[in-house]
Write a structure and sequence with these properties.
Length: 155
């Protein structure tokens, strides 16, 4: 017995024409075009499994596209907003301290700074207001400012 779809896609003539124009334009990302194809096939009355086979994606993906269409309309084909917003651990002042530290001589017993060593030293200095910082945050800050941890002479 076929299962009825929880979210029904019922495109208006204008919406269908807009989606078909997107397919023929050839200037959209593949992910967007996959969502467009899913909506068009779902509007034709196909099940999630049938749409998934026709488009080449998982039936769960089709279900999520149906749900987003039911909630947001054609905005469902666009990239969704991020689920989480991350707060920056380091502000400009703290980034400046990190860069100055990376440009300084490494501590005794070390030939150069490592990302982990920089992270530990930055927290140990107590000049910034964080309890801990990851080596990945250090890497991103140094990359953003064009700094590299190399064996070359610093100057």
């Amino acid at each position: 017995m076929p299962r009825t779809q929880k979210y029904v896609v019922d495109l208006s003539a204008d919406e269908r024409a807009e989606l078909e124009a997107m397919l023929s334009a050839g200037m959209y990302k593949t992910r967007v075009l996959t969502r467009v194809r899913c909506l068009l096939h779902a509007d034709d009355g196909l099940t999630d499994e049938q749409v998934g086979q026709a488009v080449g994606c998982h039936p769960g993906t089709v279900g999520r596209i149906r749900k987003r269409y039911a909630e947001d309309g054609l905005a469902a084909i666009n990239r969704r907003e991020a689920d989480r917003v991350y707060e920056r651990k380091l502000d400009g002042r703290a980034e400046a301290h990190l860069i100055a530290l990376a440009c300084s001589e490494p501590p005794e017993g070390h030939s150069r700074w490592s990302l982990h060593l920089l992270a530990d030293q930055l927290v140990a200095l107590n000049e910034i207001d964080v309890e801990s910082i990851s080596h990945e945050t250090v890497r991103q800050v140094l990359k953003k400012h064009g700094c590299a941890l190399t064996d070359q002479k610093r100057g």
